[in-house]
Amino acid sequence: MNRTNPFEQKLSAALEQVPSLKPGQRLLVALSGGADSCALLLGLLHFPHYPLVVAHYDHDLRASSEKDRFFCQDLANHFQIPFYWQRSSRSTTPRFQHWSPEEAARMERMAFLRHILQTASADWIVLGHTADDQVETVLLRLLTGAGSEGLKGIPCWDDQRKLFHPLLGHWRRETEAYCRANGIGYLTDESNKDPAFLRNALRLEILPAILWRFPGAKAAIMRTSQILAEENRYLCSQAKRTSSLWQEEGGNLILKKGVTSLPLAIRRRVIQAALYRKKNKASFAEVKTIGELFDKQVGRQIQLSDGLMALRVYAGVQIGPQDSGENYKPVLEVDPPATLLLPDGRRLRFEFVDPSFTHPTPGAHCIDPKQTSHFIVRYWKPGDRFWPFGAPGAKKLQDFFVDRKVARLVRHRIPLILCGEEIACLVGFTIGEKFRLGPNSTSCLRIQFEKETGDEGND
User: What fold, for 240-321?
Assistant: First the structure.
C-alpha cells in the first residue's frame, strides 16, 4: 500500500520489519494519553488488518491521574476500541522494593499489560517509545554503567516477551505534529518537568548541555546504538552455541565450569542468558558477580534480585530460588506402616518387610530398627553426627556433606530418619552402619523415597 504521510510510512516500515508479526494478530496498545501513545494509536488505525485493544495504567501518583484515565477511555470509545484500565495498588509495591521508584512504576505497569495481553487474547504489547526515548535510554545506561547489551538500547521488538516498539524511528516532535495534524489532543505529564527523577534530569539538564556543544549528538547516539545492536546480536548467537555448558536441575539452573574457558564477551552473554531464563532482568553487576563466583570456594553464595541466589557448587555455579532451609525444619513422628508427605511435596513410604526377602530397589533403604518403635523424620541441624554405612566411625554430618560434594542449597532438604536418638538413614544417600541388616536381624524397616526429578542432592 502506497503511503504519502511520512509518519505512516515509517510506521508501516516498522510493522514490516518484525518477522513474527502477522496480519490478523491483535495489538495491545499501551495508552498513557501523551503525544507518543496517542500518535501510535492513531497511526495504527490506518492498518485495519491489525485489530487493536487499548490498555491504560493509572499509577495514582498525581491528583489529575483520574482525568488521564477518562481521556484515554474517551479516545478508545471514540474509535470503538476495547479499553482496559487499572489503578495502582500500593500493596503491590513491595514486590518491587529493590527497584528505584521509576523502575518500580514501570514494572507495575508492565505486569498489568502482561495480564491484559492474556485477558484480551492479544498477541503483542505495543509501546510508544520514540527515538528521543532511545537516546535518553542509551545515554542513561552509558552514564550509569552498561555493556553493549545495555547500550543497544530499546529493541524494536522482543519475541520472547511479545513487546513491540514501532515508533523508535520517530522523534517526539513528529508524534506531536501528527496529533495536531489529525485534530487529536494529548496530555502533558507535569511530573516530566521534575528534575528529581533521573531521566527528567537527563532530558532537561544534561542532554541540552551536550547538544549545545555537539548538535548532532542525538543522531550519533542513535547510530551507535544500532551498531551495537547488530554486534550484540552476533555475540548472542555465538553464546547460544554453548548450550551444553548449562543445564536445568530440579528447578535450578547450573552453569558448568567450562563457561570460564569462553572468551569474556561470550562468557558474559552465557551468564546473561541463564539469568534471563530465571527472570526478566540481568544487570551487568549481577553478570559480573556470577562470573567471579566461579573462582570462589564451593559453598559461597550471592543474593540476586527477584528472590534468586547464585551458589558455587562443585559442578560450577547454580542459580535458583533463595532457600535458607526454613521450610524444612519440622520434626515429624512416624508409626509404620505409613506414607509421610514432606513439606516440599515429596513422599516417604514406611513399611515393615521380612528381612530375608529384601532386594535393592531404586529410591529405597532397608534398615534394622533394633527393636525401636519410635521413628522420627527431621532435617539437618548443626552438630549432627552420623556413622555412614561402611565407614570406620562417626563423623559430623556437615563433613559427610562436604565429602560427598552436597551443595549447601540442598542440605536442608535431605530427610534424616532417626531410630531413638540416632540417625539411622540419610534418605537418598545411605543408611547408618549400626542399622545395617545382618543374619541376626529379626525386623526390617523399608523406606521408599519418591524423589523430585533431578533432585538427588549431588552435584
Answer: 3.30.465
